[in-house]
Amino acid sequence: MKLNALHATSGRVLALLGLAVVAAALLIAGALRVNAEQEYDLKLVPSSTEQLTTLTIEGAASRTVAYDGAVARFRVVVERDSALEARQVGATVVDAIRDAIMENCTVDEGDADHTADPTCISPSGLQTVSFRLNQVWDWTEAGRVLRGWEYEYRLQIAIRGTGFAGGLADLVIGAGGDSLHFDGLDFTASRRAEFERLALLDAIDDAQSTADAIAEHMEYEIVRVVELSPVGNLSASRTILESAEAALADESFEPTPVFAGSETVTSRVRMVFELRPMPAVASTDASNGG
User: Fold this and answer.
1) Which of 209, 117, 124 minimizes the C-alpha distance to 159?
2) What is the DSSP string of the chain?
3) Is the pTM higher than 0.70?
4) Among 37, 160, 219, 251, which has the highest number of CB atoms less than 10 A from its own CB?
5) pLDDT tens digit sequence for 225-278
């Protein structure tokens, strides 16, 4: 009886050991399968390390803006023996120029006579730029000798439109006479800043287009723009009426001819792009597991 009981007990122990071995084997197999699947999943995760390249491009573009105004610049210069006399004579000439401007120019375009010749429209009117009264010296064998006093008064006037530009020069010269030094007349464009901004946007488009073409040719793709900044100063061509120092002789005097044109502004921009190689396209066999 004891022997039979021992055999029965041993059988149960062996059965339990067998079940334990089978369970362990199943657990090990399951663990291996899980590890295999996890390893396979990790292989599918792309690497976060990218080979990036930078590309620097300068873009440029130009816009043309028409002149729509002018600025006349001039000086009244009088030399006399005394400071008081120089100031009085100089002030008289400045007053004559002021009166001529007030009589012939208007500050409001609505007041202009558009049926007549080009009208002087000056929203800002006559402006004083500087004023000074200096001693004038001569150098002689006896040394430095006071020659007199020089009165210098700088003015400018800006007008709207370009039709009266030549008439403005004649008007100022006629009023100032021999004491006037005409420093020139510059044309202006009130919309210049607007056209500079438009040219800058065109320059950005130019740089972007060039970068796209280069990236495509190299089989790269643009990741982002790293840097964008304007380059240098804006260039422009200007038309200037040079100095003239002749007074009006009589009513038959021919007005100074002035030909207004346009101005070309150029904007430049520097852009730095970040590129990376285009991702490789998997073959059909690789995608099918062949």
Assistant:
1) 124
2) -HHHHHHHHHHHHHHHHHHHHHHHHHHHHHHHHHHHHHHHHHHHSPPS----EEEEEEEEEEEEEE--EEEEEEEEEEEESSHHHHHHHHHHHHHHHHHHHHHHEES-GGGS-TTSSPPEE-SS-EEEEEEEEEEEEEEETTEEEEEEEEEEEEEEEEEESSTTHHHHHHHHHHHHGGGEEEEEEEEE-TTHHHHHHHHHHHHHHHHHHHHHHHHHHTTEEEEEEEEEEE-SPPEE---EEPP------STTPPPPP----EEEEEEEEEEEEEEEEPPPPPPHHHHTT-
3) no
4) 160
5) 999 999 876 554 443 333 333 333 344 445 566 667 788 989 999 999 999 998
Helix axes 165-176, 83-104, angle to 10 degrees: 150
